Amino acid sequence: MPLDWIREDDYEAMSAAGAERIASALEPGLREGRPVLLGLATGNTMLVLYERLAEMLNQRGVSLAQLHTVNLDEYVGADGRWVPADHPLSYRAYMETNFFRRLDPALGLQPDHVHFPDPERPTETDDLIQRLGGLDVQLLGIGFNGHIAFNEPMPEAEIGVEAFAALPTRVIDLTERTIETNARLTAGGDRSQVPRQAVSLGMKPILAAREILLLACFPEQEEPLRRILHGRPTPELPASYLLDHPRSTIIYTGDQISLEAPA
Description:
By secondary structure, the protein is of the alpha/beta class. It has one domain (4-253): Rossmann fold (3-Layer(aba) Sandwich), CATH 3.40.50.1360. It has eight helices and ten strands. It has a seven-stranded parallel beta sheet with strand order 1-10-9-6-2-3-5, covered by helices on one side. The relative contact order is 0.19.
């Protein structure tokens, strides 16, 4: 099944469509009472999606006792540990503010079912995902350089296509472009606020997800999306690996991104 491209009119429509897709994918397993594993992303792209997803889950009233979440990444401080939860860019704080606290406590999401990769033991996250049966749904954004999570582009001269796809969860040095972009989008332009490392889910567990959903809403994302549309999987464009995934979808905003995507 080829990569599915969906154009929505604007940010609100993209967010609602993404939330509906995730809620509908989770509901059957949750109603059956089996463990369901949802991979989560952060960033400005996801803000309204998390509002809508929490609303949908609350309205449907399905128990979340068997829901596990795994975030793609978290910033790492100079001490090699997660940045503190009160750090202005902490993804743990982002998720609590924008998603977890919006969920009705009566639905029963368990605090110990909320997972972030640990920079001191990164591959334990890969082991956890395997023990839980793999990611049912993985939500992704796309960096302006085409990265997914913090899996940064690499020249094919340095790493082969298959080797890049097999990369595990690990601590990554952030590129200057990523630091600059994240400073502008999330730190008011203050580069000093952006840590130089992050712990990131690897390409291998991401691509093993049964379903992948990527959202894009910034004009700067048009260029990497066009390269996906007319390209092939390559480490030089990590998001291009969705082309070979059996069930992947890109939802983008037509008012910000102009693509001649396949119907």
